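Our preliminary data section would be incomplete without showing what the modeling component actually yields. Below, a chain of 240 amino acids is followed by its predicted structure, encoded as tokens that our downstream tools consume directly.
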Amino acid sequence: MGMGIRCPSILTIIGGVFMGTQMRRISTTIILLGFFFGCAGGPVRSTLREDIRIPPGNIEGNQFTGTRYPIAFSVPPHWRVTNSFPDFMETLGYGRPLPTDAEQTEVYAFNPETKSNIQFDLTPAGPYATFSQEKIQSLADAGTESLIAELEEEHGKNAVTLEVGPTVPAFLKGVPHAARKHVSYTLGGVRREQGWVYGFAEPYQIFILYMILEKEGSNDREEINGIVDSFRFVPPSGVN
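Predicted structure:
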């Protein structure tokens, strides 16, 4: 392959642990594609490991400030923020994380009335991983086919009609490369939008995953967009 024995380390660079069957498929697809075009000839950063012994962060009112990773965001006053997996998310197809999982989603937020939700996960990039806006957008786009395959496996082929949105650049404060993708579909009589933002800010990969459950009179889409807009990454000292 010309990259030598080092390239398998790429399997550690895009390992966002998406807590749901569809999201695990998406992350696996990103991992495999990253294997082919995300590997440098030599190390570009030190090897980092997530230390889940460090608390994810502090929740004060509607504001989250990260401790494990240098992130912050805010939510509308009627939303809830938690570091624990919300029980209702299992009914939406998300798998409950295990205490033994090597990586953990840092924080969840949700509208308790509609159950629309968003989650944030960071993971250190591997020492040989390289990123650009073009690569980030290609990897974000790759998750769509995995989501389609998962929905067909669970509900039958052509049982769910997806409307696929474009892959577009995402603008996150402090994050030089990011892209956003979403799909919309109706399941059990409820209109859903499922989307993800994938980004990179040295030395971390950033995954923001959301699901909007449409309900008459709600403003969840605008509120999700506001949460994403409020997100900011503060680079660690000494990292450009």
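The radius of gyration is 17 Å. The chain has one domain: 4-233. Preliminary results of this kind motivate Aim 1 of the renewal.
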